[in-house]
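Our platform keeps sequence and structure together, in a single record for each protein. This encoding replaces a full spatial description with a residue-level series of whole-number codes. We quote a single record here, exactly as it is kept in our systems:
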Amino acid sequence: MVAVAGRVVVVTGGRRGLGAALVDEVLARGAAKVYATARSAYVDGRPRVVTVPLEVRSAESVAALAEVAADAEIVFNNAGVLHPAPLLTGDVERAVETFDVNVLGPLRVARAFAPVLAANGGGALVNMHSVLSWLAGAGAYGASKAAAWSLTNSLRLELAPQHTHVVGVHAGFIDTDMVSALDQNKAKPADVAARIVDGLEAGAAEVLADDVSVAVKAALSGPVEHLTFPTA
């Protein structure tokens, strides 16, 4: 189990949406310091928050973050993009960007912070997936989140010898700017953030952050043709 109180935390994509809610949540639980990142520099006036620009597509940018946050003990891989276009007719470059940000981005962060976490006692790595990791019909985004789920499960094994706890998080639609145009039921970012940190502190390997994720996970043993994102 990894308690947040007194720990140094990194939250990628921490400027808005779920990332901002995670920053608020870990601060409320007593985190000693939070490094919060965004693609461009920004200001957060809270004394325990250190803002850092980060481009997860750049190994150099990720390495610079790991150098600045050399005291990190918990890392939340939250940064991501959503380009909901069909695989056959959508822009291929957008699909490439989706995989670069949603799959290779968390891998770059994990590789850069693995030695940092090891040096600081092991700590934890928390990766954000999606209920769309398990559902067809979300184009490159869903495919990227399925790949991220597999990535997390392998990282869990590889990081176990250094006592780094790895958590994978699945959630449905969260009420953020990323999905503001979608007409779907959405969870509050603060509620999802609280469930994520609850799971981390309870020692969970996987967090199903809402009821839809629980239901879809239970359906994985059924026919694959039933695992389809409802578009209407």
The helical segments are 17-28, 59-68, 92-119, 139-159, 189-202, 211-218. Strands lie at 8-11, 33-38, 49-53, 74-77, 124-128, 165-170, 206-208. Residues 92-119 form the longest helix (28 residues).
